[in-house]
Amino acid sequence: MENGIHRTMTLGPPRRSLLMLLLASGLARGDPVKPPRGPLVTCTCENPHCKGSTCQGAWCTVVLVREEGRHPQEHRGCGNLHEELCWGRPTEFVSHYCCYSPLCNHNVSLELTATPTPEQPQEVGQLPLILGPVLALLVLVVLGALGLWHVRRKQEKQLGRHSEAGESRLIPKPSEQGDSMLGDLLNSDCTTGSGSGLPFLVQRTVARQVALVECVGKGRYGEVWRGLWHGESVAVKIFSSRDEQSWFRETEIYNTVLLRHDNILGFIASDMTSRNSSTQLWLITHYHEHGSLYDFLQRHTLEPQLALRLAVSAACGLAHLHVEIFGTQGKPAIAHRDLKSRNVLVKSNLQCCIADLGLAVMHSQGSDYLDIGNNPRVGTKRYMAPEVLDEQIRTDCFESYKWTDIWAFGLVLWEITRRTIVNGIVEDYRPPFYDMVPNDPSFEDMKKVVCVDQQTPTIPNRLAADPVLSGLAQMIRECWYPNPCARLTALRVKKTLQKLSSSVETPKVMH
């Protein structure tokens, strides 16, 4: 297309009621059109991620985003063949434009105009003609919901899950202020600190109304996008097809376990869709703009109080996972099995929350049933405990999995301590064992260092100069005992950190 295009979009008012959400199920997205493949083009780049005034990609993009309480923001940049921003229809909060010639996005201007649909009087004779299709649509929605319920129950039986009747239909309480429309869906019927997934049909409806805005992370698992749902930011984790079991496991845990907690990533919805002849697996959660603890530590150095605030909140999340809560508002004990700084997110209040339950293991004392799921994926080798690396872990004992979490949590605390300022001294961010193994260590690399040489990361000497941080250093060592059952429990880690944290000043972020 030519430069200088001015595009105006006229849209109806947002659908605000739960009934309309249900009626809109499956209708919120049109048939996507996949952009053509071709040589890279140079595009104008104007967004927070630009490293210059231009960029190169498969096509050029312009995105107009309107978030509640803010003025519309227009961004220009490049698209790539793995992104899907240009494939769906715009909404009342997001408009996008894609083109395929050099600098074709330079002078494009987009508009979003929400105009009410005029009401027209209907003749009485036309009423059956209108009600007929509406009733037919309602019947289809109900039949679809019953079909999805039947498939879901079949999958649960295959994995040996026997949820209590009605438990997976409870609606959680939002864990943060300002959830507005999400807060309308995530009501306050549950007690504080508890919660579970939304009703399954509502989850699918919400998922189909999310507009993807920007890709904020990529990895072996797939991609994480910031999306908008009725003007509110949400995180959308799109799993790769080879990691379907991780998506299913997280979906299963969030929908059958009362897991709402300030220091566990807040779950909103899960959906499986077929698009462009491929299956897409979405997990929609709360969005945290600071990103992961791994990202946060690379950008910021920490005063001791902030370091302890991050550590205490992460420990609270782990302690909540590990504990079994009895009663109708209870939960089984859960071991994470892939704890690392990339799977801990930093919230706007500078507290942490634990994410990625795709490898989690559950256990209930009453039935003594150990649910290890059906996921062939293993944890992250750099964070594996010695007993995992030398294959001596007792896989039939739930406590064994909790002990491996404590080993990994000690490594996360070590990452935090390197970025903590003591007497004006601080170190660059480095991952655990950075000076002992390659960037992408093999199983054998880690086994030699951890099991044969019995090495652990070097704890910074400067921590000894501070009585509070020296206590933290000692606690990290107690997370790394070679004998798993000698390691601290998550509850003891939490209480010790809380005690240490109470003796230092107000937290600050140092740039």
TrEMBL record:
<dbReference type="GO" id="GO:0005524">
    <property type="term" value="F:ATP binding"/>
</dbReference>
<dbReference type="GO" id="GO:0007179">
    <property type="term" value="P:transforming growth factor beta receptor signaling pathway"/>
</dbReference>
<comment type="subunit">
    <text>Interacts with TSC22D1/TSC-22.</text>
</comment>
<keyword id="KW-0472">Membrane</keyword>
<comment type="similarity">
    <text>Belongs to the protein kinase superfamily. TKL Ser/Thr protein kinase family. TGFB receptor subfamily.</text>
</comment>
<dbReference type="InterPro" id="IPR017441">
    <property type="entry name" value="Protein_kinase_ATP_BS"/>
</dbReference>
<dbReference type="GO" id="GO:0004675">
    <property type="term" value="F:transmembrane receptor protein serine/threonine kinase activity"/>
</dbReference>
<dbReference type="Pfam" id="PF07714">
    <property type="entry name" value="PK_Tyr_Ser-Thr"/>
</dbReference>
<keyword id="KW-0547">Nucleotide-binding</keyword>
<keyword id="KW-0067">ATP-binding</keyword>
<dbReference type="InterPro" id="IPR000719">
    <property type="entry name" value="Prot_kinase_dom"/>
</dbReference>
<keyword id="KW-0808">Transferase</keyword>
<dbReference type="GO" id="GO:0007507">
    <property type="term" value="P:heart development"/>
</dbReference>
<dbReference type="InterPro" id="IPR045860">
    <property type="entry name" value="Snake_toxin-like_sf"/>
</dbReference>
<dbReference type="GO" id="GO:0070724">
    <property type="term" value="C:BMP receptor complex"/>
</dbReference>
<keyword id="KW-0597">Phosphoprotein</keyword>
<keyword id="KW-0675">Receptor</keyword>
<dbReference type="GO" id="GO:0046872">
    <property type="term" value="F:metal ion binding"/>
</dbReference>
<dbReference type="GO" id="GO:0001525">
    <property type="term" value="P:angiogenesis"/>
</dbReference>
<feature type="signal peptide">
    <location>
        <begin position="1"/>
        <end position="30"/>
    </location>
</feature>
<keyword id="KW-0732">Signal</keyword>
<keyword id="KW-0325">Glycoprotein</keyword>
<feature type="binding site">
    <location>
        <position position="237"/>
    </location>
    <ligand>
        <name>ATP</name>
    </ligand>
</feature>
<dbReference type="InterPro" id="IPR011009">
    <property type="entry name" value="Kinase-like_dom_sf"/>
</dbReference>
<keyword id="KW-0037">Angiogenesis</keyword>
<keyword id="KW-0418">Kinase</keyword>
<feature type="transmembrane region" description="Helical">
    <location>
        <begin position="129"/>
        <end position="151"/>
    </location>
</feature>
<comment type="function">
    <text>Type I receptor for TGF-beta family ligands BMP9/GDF2 and BMP10 and important regulator of normal blood vessel development. On ligand binding, forms a receptor complex consisting of two type II and two type I transmembrane serine/threonine kinases. Type II receptors phosphorylate and activate type I receptors which autophosphorylate, then bind and activate SMAD transcriptional regulators. May bind activin as well.</text>
</comment>
<keyword id="KW-1015">Disulfide bond</keyword>
<keyword id="KW-0479">Metal-binding</keyword>
<keyword id="KW-0812">Transmembrane</keyword>
<keyword id="KW-1003">Cell membrane</keyword>
<keyword id="KW-1133">Transmembrane helix</keyword>
<keyword id="KW-0723">Serine/threonine-protein kinase</keyword>
<dbReference type="Pfam" id="PF08515">
    <property type="entry name" value="TGF_beta_GS"/>
</dbReference>
<dbReference type="InterPro" id="IPR003605">
    <property type="entry name" value="GS_dom"/>
</dbReference>
<dbReference type="InterPro" id="IPR008271">
    <property type="entry name" value="Ser/Thr_kinase_AS"/>
</dbReference>
<protein>
    <recommendedName>
        <fullName>Activin receptor type-1-like</fullName>
        <ecNumber>2.7.11.30</ecNumber>
    </recommendedName>
</protein>
<feature type="domain" description="GS">
    <location>
        <begin position="180"/>
        <end position="209"/>
    </location>
</feature>
<feature type="domain" description="Protein kinase">
    <location>
        <begin position="210"/>
        <end position="511"/>
    </location>
</feature>
<dbReference type="InterPro" id="IPR000333">
    <property type="entry name" value="TGFB_receptor"/>
</dbReference>
<keyword id="KW-0464">Manganese</keyword>
